[in-house]
């Protein structure tokens, strides 16, 4: 998200943050209501285009979203109206902004309970547990499987042991994948938590576990490359033939054998 859309998101998030701090545990309800709006936007291209159309009067769009959220918390309605009154470079950016504010609301609940670090750790543990479970990952992404069944699978995997917010985020990623891989969605939330905690997370994917010395050395190298301290999360993936892949937000350093082979094929094809 760039330009006009980015500016609109930053402004809306600036208004949303103090609301969430005041809401405390009630922020979970606000997040769930915004998730419902995300689902409505994803289900209707015409609705999405209407609410993001700069040629339609802002008050008319605000009235429409108010009717859509009839019965919702006034704070949810207000921030949704702020979003639809804003300008967006693409209608998809509006949906992404609503989803981000929904996630921030859910995470604010964990923050108010002092459980944000636990949620971050649990989400990352889920991604590691799924590294060698290709069929499970496929099931969680496959749109032909009922959303309810995907959600129940996540409930089974968690076994009631995760923090409430972890369960909400993990289930949401399965029920409404929005075209993204399950692990990708969870890692996105981990990055968002790191942002809230004023840290940067780098995820390293490697074919075999790293030693403590290797992890320390790589953490230092990545931190210097990014210009700030990082938390290094290591994912072991048997599909990586060799080397490693480092990702921090949109920045990717890919030095795996598979990446080098792909580069070679592209050069040959060219």
TrEMBL record:
Superkingdom, taxonomy of origin: Bacteria
Key words, A-Z: ATP synthesis, Cell membrane, CF(1), Hydrogen ion transport, Ion transport, Membrane, Transport
Gene Ontology, cellular component aspect: plasma membrane; proton-transporting ATP synthase complex
InterPro entries in UniProt: ATPase_OSCP/d_CS, ATPase_OSCP/dsu
Predominant location: membrane
UniProt GO MF annotations: proton-transporting ATP synthase activity, rotational mechanism
Coiled coil: none
Record's subcellular location: Cell membrane; Membrane
Membrane-protein topology: Peripheral membrane protein
Record function comment: F(1)F(0) ATP synthase produces ATP from ADP in the presence of a proton or sodium gradient. F-type ATPases consist of two structural domains, F(1) containing the extramembraneous catalytic core and F(0) containing the membrane proton channel, linked together by a central stalk and a peripheral stalk. During catalysis, ATP synthesis in the catalytic domain of F(1) is coupled via a rotary mechanism of the central stalk subunits to proton translocation.
PANTHER family for this protein: ATP SYNTHASE DELTA CHAIN
Record-stated family: Belongs to the ATPase delta chain family.
The protein, known as: ATP synthase subunit delta
């Amino acid at each position: 998200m760039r330009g006009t859309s980015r500016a609109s998101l930053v402004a809306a998030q600036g208004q949303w943050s103090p609301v969430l701090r005041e809401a405390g545990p009630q922020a979970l309800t606000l997040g769930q209501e915004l998730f419902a709006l995300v689902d409505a936007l994803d289900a209707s291209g015409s609705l999405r285009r209407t609410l993001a159309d700069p040629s339609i009067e802002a008050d008319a769009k605000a009235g429409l979203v108010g009717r859509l959220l009839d019965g919702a918390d006034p704070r949810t309605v207000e921030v949704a109206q702020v979003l639809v009154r804003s300008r967006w470079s693409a209608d998809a950016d509006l949906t992404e902004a609503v989803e981000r504010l929904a996630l921030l609301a859910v995470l604010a609940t964990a923050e108010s309970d002092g459980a944000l670090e636990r949620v971050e750790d649990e989400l990352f543990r889920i991604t590691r547990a799924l590294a060698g479970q290709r069929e499970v990952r496929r099931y969680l992404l496959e749109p032909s499987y009922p959303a309810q069944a995907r959600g129940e699978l996540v409930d089974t995997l968690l076994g009631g042991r995760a923090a409430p917010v972890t369960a909400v985020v993990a289930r949401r990623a399965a029920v409404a994948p929005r075209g993204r891989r399950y692990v990708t969605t969870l890692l996105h939330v981990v990055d968002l938590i790191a942002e809230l905690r004023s840290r940067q997370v780098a995820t390293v994917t490697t074919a075999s576990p790293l030693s403590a010395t290797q992890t320390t050395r790589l953490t230092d190298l990545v931190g210097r490359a990014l210009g700030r301290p990082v938390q290094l999360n290591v994912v072991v993936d048997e599909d990586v033939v060799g080397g490693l892949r480092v990702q921090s937000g949109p920045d990717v350093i890919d030095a795996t054998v598979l990446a080098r082979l792909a580069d070679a094929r592209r050069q040959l094809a060219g």
